[in-house]
Amino acid sequence: TYYYCRRYGRDYFTFAAMFVTSLVVGSLAAKLSIQAKHARRREQETSALYELTRGLSAVRGIGKMADTAISLLADVYRMEIVLFVAEQDGISLHPKTASADDVKEASVARWVIQNGQLAGRNTDTLPSARGLYVPLMAEGQILGALGVLPENVDYLFGGNDINRLETYASLIASAFQRARRAEEAERTKLE
After folding, report:
1. DSSP conformational letter for 70
2. What is the largest CA-CA distance in the chain?
3. What's the rounded Cα separation, in Å, for the pair 131 and 122?
């Protein structure tokens, strides 16, 4: 068995030095753990951006691009992802079987497309919506809305979540713009 004996005054000094050292080492270890966690998250975000960019570049047509984006973002967020795409004859929903097809969610997406601003859950605009909707904007043109619908009714989107969503929305909008230009060039070529 071990026990602490107080025979000499220097034992108090040694004990104090060891205690302070353990506090410093523990604090540094905790900081290192937090930094490693942030580095892993940044790596996952970078990987997701790369996969989204690569996936959108590999397919042609807005429908296929929408399906690719939904699939990749559903893996990132582990939530239901929907895309409302503005078209000449109205707004189409991707995927067609999405639960965001109800009137309330569709009206929030329409508002986002008309106003070009973030709306829905955890925002000042239409906060009673189930999802958070971000405009798909490229070259000053609004091409649709990206929606994220959490399963948990208490889920709160943080600033980092919103920034990432805006980045993903920008990539998707750029891909949609590229697809529309390609379709226009094809139509022009046929005429």
Report:
1. H
2. 101
3. 9
H or E, element range at 124: none
**Distance in angstroms (rounded) separating the CA atoms of residues 167 and 76:** 13
Token representation of residue 93:
């929903």
Which residues are 138's β-sheet partners?
141
**Phi, psi dihedrals of residue 166, rounded to the nearest 5°:** -65, -35
Joined tokens for residue 72: 């990749």
Q: What angle do CA 169, 104, 161 make, to 5 degrees?
A: 30
Output the pLDDT for position 45: 84
Q: Which DSSP category does 126 fall into?
A: S
pLDDT greater than 60 at residue 1: no
Considering the entire predicted model, what is its pTM?
Answer: 0.78
Q: What is the pLDDT of residues 98-127, one digit of tens each?
A: 665 688 889 999 999 999 999 999 899 999
Q: Are 145 and 113 in contact (CB under 8 A)?
A: yes
**Length of the chain (residues):** 191
How far is 143 from 173, CA to CA, in rounded Å? Answer: 6
